[in-house]
Amino acid sequence: MPKYLDITGQRFGRLKAIEFAGYDKNKAVLWKCVCECENIVVVRSDHLRYGRISSCGCMKSEMSAKRGRDNAKHGMWNTRL
């Protein structure tokens, strides 16, 4: 297995790496992280380091709740109107 970069204690957006979690089926390094909302997730280290993931999913739900009905679609996508 390839050596991994130790990122224990580093923060990536809302996630903080707490421990090495092994390798996935593609031999990518996995880390166990804790989010600011106290959820624990296991994510790939390259997704953390390159900014592809920055929370456990809580940020997406907060942003959609913040937008609210301002950006809502009418839902009549296949009608004559």
DSSP helix fraction: 10-25%
Helix tally equals 2
SSE succession: EEEEHH
Largest sheet: 4 strands, antiparallel
Question: Based on DSSP secondary structure assignment, what is the total number of beta strands?
Answer: 4
Structural class: alpha+beta
Low-pLDDT segments: none
Strand order of the largest sheet: 1-2-3-4
Would you write up a description of this structure?
There is one protein chain. With 81 residues, the chain is of the alpha+beta class. 19% of the residues lie in helices and 28% in strands. It has two helices and four strands; from the N terminus they run E-E-E-E-H-H. It has helices spanning 45-49, 58-67, and strands at 11-12, 15-23, 29-35, 40-44. It has a four-stranded antiparallel beta sheet. The radius of gyration is 18 Å and the shape is elongated. The N and C termini lie far apart (59 Å).
Sum this structure up briefly.
A hairpin with a 5-residue loop joins strand 2 and strand 3. It is built from 2 helices and 4 strands. By secondary structure, it is an alpha+beta fold.
Descriptors for this entry?
81 residues; four-stranded antiparallel beta sheet
Summarize the helices and strands and which ones pair or pack.
Layout: E1 11-12, E2 15-23, E3 29-35, E4 40-44, H1 45-49, H2 58-67
Antiparallel strand pairs: 1-2, 2-3, 3-4
